[in-house]
Write a structure and sequence with these properties.
The complex is a heterodimer of chains A (374) and B (446). Chain A has 374 residues and is α/β, with parallel strands linked by helices. Chain A has 16 helices and eight strands. Chain A has a four-stranded parallel sheet with strand order 2-1-3-4, sandwiched between helices. A four-stranded parallel sheet of chain A has the order 6-5-7-8, with helices on both faces. With 446 residues, chain B is α/β, with parallel strands linked by helices. Helix content of chain B is 48%, strand content 13%. Chain B contains 17 helices and 13 strands. Chain B has a four-stranded parallel sheet, sandwiched between helices. The chains are: A alpha/beta (374), B alpha/beta (446). Chains A and B meet through helix 5, helix 6, helix 14 and helix 15 of A and helix 5, strand 7, helix 6, helix 15 and helix 16 of B.
Chain lengths: 374, 446
């Protein structure tokens, strides 16, 4: 059952090319989860998240100064190496400074794009004026997409897109709810495969596969086991790391990542003004640190996840040089520890030092397990 | 090296130093006279708190971070204190200095034995503790802006804070809807200020402050434009001491007056008389981003080659406001009509004007920044460009590698040097000088 998602994730480019061939539609590469994908979906465009490949590379040095996060450079490497040569367009929603450099360099140096969009997602989502402002940005975006695709985005198409996306979010929440069980039927590594696939394939297909999975999971016999953990922090698609932790005695049961729960946590509340409904959803979603001010709303959300999923510890993972999360993790660590959740802080690069991290993770698991070593 | 032009010191130099010292003294002593202190960034809409009264004094974050960086001993203590609290050393170095000043409770200024307000690093000066602001009034376009003050508030045990999202898009996409989003936030911000301080709000003071803002930012651009002349009347090392007023209190009457009535006439006079900043001027370059504040001597090192750094998009456009002139050149932005009839009108004009700030544009496109840099390189007749790959400021270093490629494509030699504006542990002076040696040789200097 998990294989389908794993196949999508691991063969993301083949999937997108096949989808184009099959549907005749356009594919949009997205650099941030604040992109209002419903609009693209309604126009028959497949939004795919651009992620890195976790391989050392030597092509981005002339384009992005080395003080910026490894993730943004890894993503750009994919473009410069031609791995996303099937994209018709690229798009970013305003979030952190790092990843927008990937967008700019891609815009200039990767050939074959028909359309590129720097979407102004407001930073101050806590402003009462933000939904209206975002609605206006979405309205302008709709007009641009209509011009680009030559297709009118009708109310019916938007309703369908909202329904498909909401279904996906509902099913993912069900999947996460199953992990509240004292013996969760699925591992963190498997969920990461599903989450990543979610950002790469047609949501309707993902929904169908999720429904089958959710039907099967309760009867699963080979359930994973381990110390219940949460993972919190920057963008994270490091499956190798999750595998290492889960083969060392840990079990991830929940996360706060943009490649995980932050992407799908809340739904669009359908309303007559569809664009406002979409805007409100992106305003209300669990925030990225870049948008979590003046009040720190991430903290109660993260502590709430830790409590509700009954975690024994949290791993705070930090993409090296990721300023937004560097501005949050001290407060996140304190909030978790004040709530009785021990934490382990690890700094990630394109490749992670698995051996060293394994020693630290094992020590952490021993500590929170209060094991008698001798 | 033989002098090619006459030179002389700036007559307003001491006045400028006094102006800067008074700014920090006013902030530190505000409570003594029943006034208010507030904190916010150099880009914040500082005309807004001005409506609370004439006794409301700001401390802007980045210039204060630079001031700390110049005080090497204190800076190291601040940086290390911040690291002890768990914050990474690759975060904004201004911010880390600033946080460290709070953590160590050490202000960069104090009083000498005679009771004179002085920089802390002078002998016999007893530093003050960090003067806690009464409220925070910030803007947010860089990832660190509002977050900076989230931490400040936490470190100080809670300070009322309001931040404005000004990242609404590049200048060529500005429209009524985008302007109004910022205006509405400012209006709510005024309500916040009134509620927080318990003071009435005076729109006439707001109008005056907005006028000051227009004058400061336009006249600063006019001053920088004069550096198109050969020889350049100002060098960038001096410009750093002068542009700072726009970062301290651009809506302040004292800043508008200094730029319009003191500095501008003096620089115009220097141009008329052919007074050079660097008498040996043969080569003209520009830099980019904040300099390594502890190592401004590299700009004097350039002069040994007859090279003057005439400025940068950073010093010209961080606060300066520019526009296309009828002859196709880049010149100071025309000051709008300031006969405001309502708060709404004043705020609208203020925001509309401000959203065209050159140094806000690269947050949306590094290519737009490249175009502006190439324009400066051409109009200011530069021989080459020195790019500071600045580890201390992600906001101004974003896209810098693409800027380098674009400048090279446009035919300008580029020398990149790596450093940090406010963490001297990340600057290699000897290596930078060696790079300057090689760069000058490339430009034809012997």
């Amino acid at each position: 059952m998990i294989e389908k998602f794993k196949d999508w994730e691991q063969n993301r480019h083949e999937y997108a090319k096949e989808w184009k061939e099959r549907t005749g539609g356009k594919v949009m590469g997205c650099f941030c989860t604040y992109v209002p994908e419903e609009v693209l979906y309604a126009a028959g465009v497949l939004p795919v998240r651009i992620l890195g490949s976790h391989e050392p590379q030597d092509v981005t040095e002339p384009h992005i100064f080395g003080m910026f996060c490894p993730f943004c450079r890894d993503c750009l490497a994919q473009g410069l190496k031609g791995r996303y040569d099937y994209l018709n367009g690229i798009m970013i929603a305003q979030s952190c400074l790092h990843i927008r450099q990937t967008f700019w360099s891609w815009q200039k140096h990767v050939e074959g794009l028909e359309y590129s969009k720097f979407f102004i997602m407001p930073h101050k989502v806590q402003s009462k004026d933000a939904p209206e402002f975002l609605r206006g940005e979405i309205e302008e975006f709709v007009a641009e997409v209509e011009e680009w695709t030559g297709k009118k985005i009708t109310d019916e198409a938007l309703d369908n897109a909202i329904a498909v996306y909401n279904k996906n979010r509902e099913l993912m929440r069900k999947l996460y709810d199953l992990r509240k069980d004292p013996n969760p039927p699925i591992s963190g590594e498997e969920v990461m495969e599903i989450s990543m696939a979610m950002e790469m394939v047609d949501k309707a297909e993902h929904n169908a596969a999720l429904e089958e999975l959710l039907e099967w999971l309760p009867s699963r016999t080979d359930k994973p086991s381990g110390t219940r953990l949460m993972i919190v922090g920057s963008e994270d698609d490091d499956i190798t790391f999750l595998n290492m932790v889960e083969t060392s005695g840990g079990l991830f049961v929940v996360d706060d990542h943009c490649t995980g729960s932050r992407y799908f946590w809340n739904q669009v509340e359908p309303a007559e003004d569809r664009l406002m409904a979409i805007a409100q959803r992106y305003i209300d979603r669990p925030p990225c640190p870049t948008k979590d001010w003046e009040e720190r709303k991430r903290l109660p959300h993260i502590v709430g996840l830790a409590k509700d999923w009954d975690v024994a510890g949290a791993i705070i993972m930090q993409q090296k040089f990721c300023d937004p999360h560097e501005l949050d993790f001290v407060a996140v660590k304190k909030a978790l520890e004040d709530a009785g959740v021990p934490t382990l802080f690890l700094e990630f690069d394109v490749t992670v030092p698995i051996g060293q991290f394994k020693i630290r993770v094992e020590a952490f698991l021993e500590m929170i397990g209060d094991e008698d070593l001798f | 090296m033989e002098d090619l032009y006459p030179t002389e010191k700036l007559k307003c130099w001491n006045e400028s130093k006094d102006l800067r010292m008074k700014y920090y003294q006013d902030y530190a002593e505000a409570h003594d006279n029943g006034g208010l202190r507030w904190a916010g960034g150099a880009w914040t809409f500082d005309a807004i708190p001005a409506g609370l009264g004439d006794d409301v004094y700001p401390i802007t974050s980045e210039p204060y971070g630079a001031t700390l960086a110049f005080d090497k001993e204190l800076s190291l203590k601040c940086l290390e204190a911040t690291e002890v609290k768990g914050y990474p050393r690759d975060l904004c170095s201004y911010m880390r200095n600033y946080w460290g000043s709070i953590i160590t409770d050490t202000f960069a200024f104090g009083y000498d034995a005679e009771g004179n307000f002085q920089p802390r690093f002078l002998d016999g000066v007893e530093p003050l503790g960090f003067p806690k602001p009464d409220f925070i009034w910030q803007d947010h376009i860089c990832c660190s802006h509002a977050k900076w003050y989230q931490v400040v508030s936490e470190l100080e045990g809670g300070i009322p804070a309001y931040s404005v999202d000004n990242a609404v898009g590049p200048s060529h996409e500005i429209n009524d809807r985008k302007i109004k989003f910022v205006v509405e936030q400012l209006k709510e911000g005024i309500e916040f200020l009134v509620k927080t301080t318990g003071r009435d709000y005076d729109d006439e003071l707001l109008y005056k402050a907005i006028r000051n803002h227009f004058v400061s930012t336009s006249k600063w651009a006019e001053i920088c434009e004069l550096n198109k002349n050969i020889p350049a009347p100002l060098d960038e090392k001096s410009i750093y001491s002068l542009y700072v007023f726009g970062t301290l209190q651009k809506a302040g009457a004292q800043v508008a007056n200094f730029y319009e009535n003191v500095l501008l006439p003096e620089v115009q006079d220097r141009v008329r008389r052919g007074i050079a900043a660097v008498p040996t001027e043969k080569f003209r370059v520009m830099s980019d981003t904040q300099p390594p504040w502890s190592f401004l001597s590299i700009f004097r090192y350039l002069e040994e080659y007859g090279c003057v750094s005439v400025g940068s998009l950073y010093t010209f456009g961080l606060l300066g406001q520019w526009e296309d002139k009828p002859d196709g050149t880049w010149g100071p932005k025309t000051i709008p009509d300031t006969n405001f009839s309502s708060r709404d009108e004043a705020l609208y004009e203020y925001v509309k004007y401000e959203l065209h700030k050159p140094e806000w544009q690269h947050f949306y496109s590094c290519h737009q920044k490249s175009d502006m840099m190439i324009r400066i390189a051409r109009e200011w007749q530069l021989s080459g460009v020195m790019l500071h790959y600045n580890r201390g400021c992600e906001g101004l270093s974003i896209g810098i590698a693409e800027n380098r490629l674009a400048l090279i494509d446009a035919g300008f030699p580029v020398m990149a040097f790596e450093g940090n504006n406010a963490d001297e542990r990340e600057f290699d002076q000897a290596r930078t000088k060696a790079k300057i040696d090689a760069f000058m040789e490339t430009l034809g200097a012997k």
